[in-house]
Amino acid sequence: MKLILTHEVNGLGAPGDVVEVKNGYGRNYLLPRGFAIRWTRGGQKQIDLIQRARSARDIRTLDEAQQVAGRVNALTVRLKQRAGEGGRLFGSVTPADIADAVKATGGPELDKRRIEIKNPIKAVGSHKVQVRLHPEVSATIKLDVVGS
């Protein structure tokens, strides 16, 4: 099955890429979640639109990505969340929360879709979160979650 990706999918591609996947994966996972649309000959206009939007928000060069990574690695972000008595959070920390906290701390503006949280953050304390800035560059955010 040939699809056009509308979102970044780890191990598959970036928005605007045309990929060939197995029918079940495309039909049962990518299409229902809105990660892809079916490829058609007339879909080239959609591909151009998606790639133009992606290039506007992507970090363009490797040098720029390394500079942003240096700034992000130097940051320690403090995030206040509602927590119970045992230090357990009401809910969990989302990538959008992290991106807003980085910006409020004085760091660069990050795309929430590029923040990778391996295990859900559901407790107060220190955590490390990966950010993919460029295909070859990733940075680590030191996150201190504090109960409020």
Automatic annotation (TrEMBL):
Which Gene Ontology CC terms are recorded? ribonucleoprotein complex; ribosome
Coiled-coil stretches = none
Q: Which InterPro entries match?
A: Ribosomal_bL9 (IPR000244), Ribosomal_bL9/RNase_H1_N (IPR009027), Ribosomal_bL9_bac/chp (IPR020594), Ribosomal_bL9_C (IPR020069), Ribosomal_bL9_C_sf (IPR036791), Ribosomal_bL9_N (IPR020070), Ribosomal_bL9_N_sf (IPR036935)
GO terms (molecular function) for this protein are:
rRNA binding; structural constituent of ribosome
Q: PROSITE patterns, from UniProt?
A: RIBOSOMAL_L9 (PS00651)
Q: Which domain of life is it from?
A: Bacteria
User: What keywords appear on the UniProt entry?
Assistant: Ribonucleoprotein, Ribosomal protein, RNA-binding, rRNA-binding
Give the matching PANTHER family.
50S RIBOSOMAL PROTEIN L9 (PTHR21368)
NCBIfam families recorded: L9 (TIGR00158)
Q: Which family does it belong to?
A: Belongs to the bacterial ribosomal protein bL9 family.
Task: Describe its function.
Answer: Binds to the 23S rRNA.
Q: What is this protein called?
A: Large ribosomal subunit protein bL9
Organism, scientific name: Nocardiopsis alborubida
